[in-house]
Structures are given as C-alpha cells and as structure tokens.
Amino acid sequence: MAWIYLLLAGVLEIGFAMGLKYTQGFTRLWPSVGTMAAAACSLWLMTQAMKQIPVGTAYAIWTGIGAMGVALLGIWLFDESASLARLACIGLIVAGVIGLKLTSA
After folding, report:
1. Handedness of CA 16, 21, 25, 29 (dihedral sign)
2. Per-residue DSSP letters for 76-100?
3. Could you give the count of Cα atoms lying within 13 Å of 56 in the half-sphere of its Cβ?
4. Are 31 and 22 in contact (CB under 8 A)?
5. 10, 62 in Cβ contact below 8 A?
6. How many CA atoms lie within 13 A of 103 on its CB side?
7. What is the torsional sign of CA 21, 22, 28, 34?
8. Count of beta carbons in the 10 Å neighbourhood of residue 95
9. Quick check: 49 and 10 in contact, CB under 8 A?
10. Are residues 53 and 3 in contact, defined by beta-carbon separation less than 8 angstroms?
11. Domain range enclosing 81
12. What is the C-alpha separation between 100 and 65, in angstroms, rounded?
C-alpha cells in the first residue's frame, strides 16, 4: 500500500506544480485552493508512504514523478521544447525512478 500512496503523492505533486502556473501568484481563488489542496494531499500521502519506504527513496521517487509529469505536461500544454535531449533527460528520470523502486526493500 505504501507504493500506491507514493504513486498518488507523485501524481498530486504534478497537480500541485502545474496548479502554480494557474494561480497567477495566488491571486486567483479557485486555482489557488486546488493547488493548496493538491499540495496538502500530496504531502499527507507522502508521510503515509514513508512509514514503510526509506525517506531518501520516497523523496527521490516523489520528486521524480513530479518532475517527469510537469515536464511532459509542459510540452503538451504550453508548447515547451520537446527536443531529443530534453526527452532523453526525462527518460533518465524515469529510469532512475524505476531503478529506485526495483532496488528498494
């Protein structure tokens, strides 16, 4: 169950980070509320995951999921660069997350 919590925390991390763009400096009420709710839920799920997953592994996977998701959504939603080098770096993040999962007890 801890790994499911961690995966959900990572997905909410993506929502939190993407939401920051839409808050316009926390001047828009509903995007700000949604962003803060995603952040709070993400952190709560992360604390639940850390009861069984080592802190270094959990944090690296959480940030990796967030970084990968935000980078991919930036390409899709905001027409950010999808260069081969950038996609390769996103692939390295994915490889690192998978590697940490496979090597964790």
Report:
1. negative
2. HHH-----HHHHHHHHHHHHHHHHH
3. 5
4. yes
5. yes
6. 10
7. negative
8. 11
9. no
10. yes
11. 2-103
12. 12
pLDDT digits (tens, 9 = 90+) for 59-83: 999 999 999 999 999 999 999 999 9
Q: Rounded to a whole number, what is the largest CA-CA distance in the chain?
A: 43
Instruction: Decide: 49 and 58 in contact? Cβ < 8 Å.
Output: yes
Q: How many domains does the chain have?
A: 1
Contacts of 11 (CB under 8 A, 6+ apart): 65, 69
Provide the pLDDT for residue 31.
Answer: 96
Length of the chain: 105
* Local confidence band at 105 (pLDDT 50, 70, 90 cut-offs): low
Strands (E) across 1-105 are located at none
Tokens 């959990």 sit on residue:
58
First to last CA, the chain: 14
Distance CA 102, CA 45 (A): 21
